[in-house]
Amino acid sequence: MVGTPATPLSKIRRTLSYTPGGPKVREEKILVTVRIRPLSRREQAMYDLIAWDWMDDHTIIYKNPNHERAATTFTFDKVFGLSCSSQKVYEEGAKDVALSALTGINATIFAYGQTSSGKTYTMKGITENAVKDIFEHIRNRPERDFVLSLSALEIYNETVVDLLNRESGSLRLLDDPEKGTIVEKLVEEVVKDGRHLLHLIDICEAQRQVGETALNDKSSRSHQIIRLTIKSSLRESSGRVKSFIASLNLVDLAGSERASQTNADGVRLKEGSHINRSLLTLTTVIRKLSGGKRSGHIPYRDSKLTRILQSSLGGNARTAIICTMSPALSHVEQTRNTLLFATSAKEVTNNAQVNMVVADKTLVKHLQKEVARLEAELRSPEPFLSSCLRSLIEEKDLKIEQMEREMEELKRQRDLAQSQLDLERKSHKAQKGLNQCGPSCQVVKCLSFLGENDPVSGKSLPITKPRNAFGRQAMVRQSVTSTDPSMLVHEIRKLEQRQRQLGDEANRALEVLHKEVASHRIGSGETTETIARLLSEIKDMQAVSSVPEEIVIGDKTNLMEEINRLKCQGSTIESLEKKLENVQESIDKLVSSFASRNETLECKTQSKKKKFLPFAGSNNANMQNIIRSPCSPLSSSRKIMECETENKVPENKGFVPSGDSFLMPCNGTPIKSDEHSNCVPSREGTPAAQQSNSVNVKKMQRMFKNAAEENIRSIRAYVTELKERVAKLQYQKQLLVCQVLELENAAETDEPSIIDQTSPKPWHLKFEDERKQIAMLWHLCHVSIVHRTQFYLLFRGDPADEIYMEVELRRLTWLEQHFAELGNASPALLGDEPAGSVSASIKALKQEREYLAKRVSSKLTADEREVLYTKWEIPPGGKQRRLQLVNKLWTDPHNMKHVHESAEIVAKLVGFCESGEHASKEMFALNFVCPSDKKTWMGWNLISNLLNL
Ligand SMILES: Nc1ncnc2c1ncn2[C@@H]1O[C@H](COP(=O)(O)OP(=O)(O)OP(=O)(O)O)[C@@H](O)[C@H]1O
Fold first, then answer.
1. Which PROSITE patterns would you find in this protein's record (predicted)?
2. 199 CA to middle of ligand 1, Å?
3. Is the shortest distance between the CB of 254 and ligand 1 below 6 Å?
C-alpha cells in the first residue's frame, strides 16, 4: 500500500490574513500530532508486537512484521514516541493553540484515538500544563484584567450532562445566531485561581461516566468537553477599553472500539454504539472539511459532539488534535483508522479571528452605572421582582391591546372584502347570464317580463320602465342575481301570484265557454263534457298549487324550501299547459261543430238566436272580469272589447225594434229564455213584422254567427296567450331555481371563478388565498397529514397548479359539506372506503400520528430531534416526546409558517421528496379513485398507504 503523502511543514505553517475593516482572520490548518503510548501491561502479557516505526518527529511507518504488504507511511505535524513526556506533547502539540485563548482567539485541543490508546492520559497532561501556562501568562500581564470561567459537560449516549451540576439532567442545545450552538442552562463557574481551576477539573473528572472494559479498567464512556472562557480587558491611555474574549475547549473523546475487542454487552455495548456513531459523524465532518469547505453539506448536526464543536472544526477557532495510539500489532487496524482520521484532519482549514470588543469611556461609564443599578436591584429583590412583574404585565397588556386592535382591523378588512366579493359575484353573475348564449340567455331575456306590473304589490315597479339593454341588465342583476334570500322569495311569490291569476283566468274563460255550450247546446255533448271536466281539473289544480300565504322570508332554509316546492310545482305548470292545450283542442272542436251546425241553427227560433250573443249580453259580467284582469294581455282584451262593440245590436241600423225588449240584453240585464221567447213571438205575429223578421232573422243569424265565431276565436287566442305566459312562467321558475342553486353553491365554495373577469386577481394572490382555504378545510375535515404535506409541498404556486388547487378545493368543499350534512361522515376515510363516522376519521388521523411518531427516531437524528423538541416546546424528560411532537404538527391552519414547518417535518418522516417517484402531481388529479399503483398514492386513505411505504 502506498503511503499517504506527507504534508510539508511549510504547508501546515500558519499564515495570517486580514479582513479589510474587520478583525484579523487567521486562516490555518488544524495542528495534528500523534502520540504513541508504550505497550500496556495487558499487551505485554499477551506478547503483543510493536507494529509501528517512527523514523523522525513527523513520520510513522507501519512495520509490517510479516512483510505481507508494502510499508505504510503517515506524516503529521509531530509524532511523539513511546517515552515522550506529556510536557513535551503539550509544548509541541498544544501550547501554541491553547494560549491563543488569552489573546481572544478560540482554541480547541482534543484527543482522538482508539479506546485505551491514552487520550485521557494525554488530555490530563495537556490540561495541567495549559492551566499552569495560562496563570503564568496572567501573572505576567498585570496591565490587563482577566476573568476566567469554567464550564464542563459530557455527552453520554447522546445526552448532554453538566459535569458541574449533574442534577440538572439532560441539557438542550440551542442555536444562537451569534454564538452558534449553545448549551442551555450549563453552569459556568468563575475561576478564582489556578488551584481552584484544577479543583473544578477534578470534579469534572470525578463526575464523568467511566466503566471497565476488556481493554481499559477506567474507560471513558462519554465525550468530555471542558471549556475555559477567558475574558481580558485593557484600559488604554485614551480611555478606551479593549477586551478580548475566547474559549479554550479541552476535549477528551471517548474511544472508538470494537465490541469484539472490548467484550462489550448490555450497557457497555449501548455506550459503545453511541460512541462509535458520534465518532463516525466526527470523521465524516473532518473528511468533508478536508475536501475543501465548500465541498457540500457538512453534517455537523448529525451528532451533538460535532454540533458543539462546530466552530472548532473549520470555523472560528484554532484547533489541535492529538491522535493517540497503541503501537501493538493487535490494534493495528484501529490504529490505521486513527491515522487516516488524522490525515484527513490535517487538511482542514480553520478561520480563527480575534474576538475583540472596544468600548469608549462614556459607554463604559454607562455600563458601569447600569451594572451598579442592577446590583442594587438584586440586593433588594422584592421591589426588583415586582417592578419586573409590573413591566411584564404592562408589556402583556400592551400586546393584548395591540392584538385586539389588529383583530378589529382584520375583521373590518374581512367584512369589507366580503362585501366587495359579494358585489363582484353579483355583477359577474349578471354579466355572465347576459353574455352567455344558450338557454340561460333566453331565460334571462324572458325575465324582462318581470318588468310589468308587480302582481304582489299591484304597483308598477320602477325598474320595469327602461327598455334599453342597460336598464334590463340592471333589473335582472337586482332581481335575479341577488343573493338576498328575501329578494328571491319575493320573486318566487310574484311568480306564484301570476300562476294563480293565470289559473283564474283560464278558469273564467272556460266557465264562460262552458256556460255558453251548456245553455245553448253548442257543440257536441262530448265537447261539453270535455270542457266541464277541464274546468273541474283546473279548479283542482288551483287548489293544489295554492301557496301558503305565511312563509317567513329572509332565511336561507326557507329559500331552499321554496326552491324545493317550486321544483315540485314544475309538473303542475306542465299539467296546466297540457290542460290549456286540451282547452284549445276543445275550442277547435267547438268551432268546427259550430260551423257544421250553423245552417241548422239558422232555421231555429229567434228566441234561440238572441242567445248567440254570449259576450255581448248574458255573459257580460264575465267578460268584464276578463278584461279587467291585471294579467289579461292587452291584445286579447282589445279584441274582446272590439268584439263587444261589434256585437252591440245598435250597429244594425236596418232593424229598429219597437219597445226595448230586444235591447234589454245589451244593457246587461240577464234575460231568461222563457221571458225572451214570450216577448219575441208578439212581434213575429204581424205580417209586416214577419217579412221584416224574415230579413232580419237572416241578418241576425249572420250577426250571431259572426259573434259566436268571434267569441270562440277570442277564447282561442286568449288560451294561446295563456299558454305562452305559462311557458314564460316556467322559464322564470327554472331560472330562479338555477340561479339560487348556483348562488348557494358559490356561497359554500367561495368559488374564485366568479370573481369579476375584467380584473382577475393575480395568480400568486389567488394561490395564496386558495392554499389558506385548503389548509383550513384539511383541518376541518381531519384529512391525513401526509396527504396535506404532499399536496402542500408539491403545489407551490406554479401557474400549472391552478387546476389541482381548484380540484382540491372542490373536493374539500364537497367533503366539508357532506361532513356537515351527514353529521358523522368521515372525510379522512373517503377514498375507496365507505364514509365512517367523525370519530373514525379522527381515529384514523390519530393512528397516522402514532405511526409517524414511531418514525421520528429512525428518520431524524438525535440532534434534529432535540432541535425540534426545543422549537416545538416539548418539555425535556417528558413522556412520549415523539408523539407529543407529531401531535403538534398540522394543528394551526391559520398560521402558514406552522403549516410549512409541519409539512417539512412530516415530509422527512415519510421520506417524501418532491422530485421522487412518490411525488407525482397527477396523484392529486380529478378523481378520488386510487391509482392502480398504491405505492405512489399517498392520498386520503392514509394508513394503508403508509404501510406500503
Ligand atoms: N503515554 C502513556 N504513557 C504511559 N501510560 C499511558 C500512556 N497513555 C496511556 N497510558 C495508560 O494506558 C491506559 C489507558 O489510557 P487512557 O485511559 O488514557 O486511554 P483512553 O484512550 O482514554 O481510553 P478510553 O477511550 O477507553 O477512555 C491508562 O492506564 C494509562 O495510564
1. KINESIN_MOTOR_1 (PS00411), KINESIN_MOTOR_2 (PS50067)
2. 21
3. yes
The answer to whether the CB of 224 is under 6 A from ligand 1 is no
735 Cα to the center of ligand 1, angstroms: 94
Task: Give, using CA atoms, the residue closest to atom 11 of ligand 1.
Answer: 118
Helix (H, G, I), strand (E, B) or coil at 137: helix
CA 262 / ligand 1 centre spacing (Å):
15
Residue nearest to atom 12 of ligand 1 (CA): 118
Specify whether the CB–CB gap between 327 and 36 falls below 8 A.
yes
Q: What is the DSSP letter of 648?
A: -
Q: What amino acid is encoded at 734 in this protein?
A: Q
Among positive and negative, which fits the CA dihedral 254, 257, 262, 264?
positive
CA dist list (Å): 625 to 582, 721, 764:
23, 17, 65
Q: Which CATH number fits domain 23-359: 3.40.190.10, 1.20.58.760, 3.40.850.10, 3.90.1010.10?
A: 3.40.850.10
From the centroid of its chain, how far is CA 888? 16
- Residue nearest to ligand 1 atom 8, measured at CA: 118
Listed in order, the ranges of the chain carrying CATH 3.40.850.10 are 23-359
**CB 827 less than 6 A from any atom of ligand 1:** no
Mutate to test the pocket of ligand 1, among 121, 216, 274 (most ligand atoms within 8 A of CB): 121
What is the spatial distance between Cα 483 and Cα 481, in angstroms, rounded to a whole number? 6
Distance 219 CA to ligand 1 centre (A): 9
Q: Per-residue pLDDT for 635 more than 70?
A: no
Q: Exposed (0-12), middle (13-18) or buried (19+): which is 53, by Cβ within 10 Å?
A: middle
**All 3 cell numbers of residue 79?**
509524532
Contact at 8 Å (CB) between 60 and 73?
yes
Whether the predicted pLDDT of 364 surpasses 80: no
Closest protein CA for atom 10 of ligand 1 = 118
Known binding residues are 113-120
Q: What does the pLDDT look like over 382-414, one tens digit per residue?
A: 555 566 666 777 777 777 777 777 777 777 777
Q: Quote the Cα angle for 682-688-692, to 5°.
A: 90
* Rounded CA separation 468/481 (Å): 19
Model pTM score: 0.43
Note the pLDDT tens digit of each residue in 291-313: 775 567 888 888 899 999 988 88
Instruction: Report the run of H or E that residue 631 belongs to, with start and end.
Output: none
Phi, psi at residue 773, to the nearest 5°? -60, -45
Ligand 1 centroid from CA 345, angstroms? 22
Predicted ipTM > 0.95? yes
Residue with cell 484554532: 318
Binding positions for ATP are 113-120
